[in-house]
Here is the input.
Amino acid sequence: MFNLTFRRRKVSTEFQKSRSIDTHFLSSIYKALLKGEEVEFRPKIRQGVGIVYDLFGIEVSIDKLKNFYDRGLIEVAGEISFPSCPICGDTCLHLFLACPECGSRNIEKKDLLVHYDCGYMDSVEAFQTSREGVYRCPKCGGELKRVGIDYGRPGFGFICKDCRTVFQIPLVEVECERNHKIRVQQLEVKKFPVYRLSEESKKISRIFEIVEIIAVKLKERGIDAVTFAHVRGLSGVSYTIPIYVKGNPSLIIEIAPEEIMDERYPLLMTIEAVDVPDSIMIIILPSSFRPELESIFNPEKIKIIKVENIYRSVDEIVDEIVEVIGRRIYAET
Here is the structure.
């Protein structure tokens, strides 16, 4: 019984997160388009996770972007290649420098000096004496005064702390997070898409213009409506509420034109309504919404407003919202 309850709670939380990301995505599109910004989603590597995308300030998995792509909200604009492990395909790679002689990773980067007569090379510090500008070879004891004649300064290099080998080009090793060790030449290359907004997503973002208009009209009637408010539920999930009226109870107003509804929508709204405490939800739906699905909603918790065309019914929607809020709130404003 406990395991079943845990699984249900886990599925519920996943649905809530999915809904929250969807709302964040669509509201952010609207804001970006208002500013005339070009929007592109580029893959990047997050160590311990893999490939992620920055979705207007929220990092999401490649699967979430594929979901948006499958729904026609984004389209492929190009590709970016990342090195990957040839054994497991992992893109979370760590680079290591090693001694080419003994393979030890215990190396130091140093400014090198070479004594021409005996050929000994070491760090500059190893040759230094108490006299400024005068060096002494730690191998043969020869005094070095003239650069280019007695000694040379080849630049930076590496010294192995284990076998004392001095070298300028280290051995480059790569290790993935599954502990597979490979050479750079063995790496595979994996391509990941760069996405941009589709024309469909730009059409859907119109809903957020409606949100702003409804909020303005509610404020004109004395109702303090906040758009795209972030509200945390009992589960800990943060929701982006299209229109939120704080009170006791608070009012959550969700707007759902046909373009953004899918088979998950009724369940997601039911979960959200239960998760946000001391609240009543109003869902504005198109008249085409199937009546049999309305039975999922608890009428004490969720009120439904159905209109023929959401984009052309703003005044009707506002009147209905005011009526649901109650004559007392309307009369006081």
About this structure: Confidence is low (pLDDT under 50) at residues 1-12, 327-333. The first helix runs from residue 2 to 34.
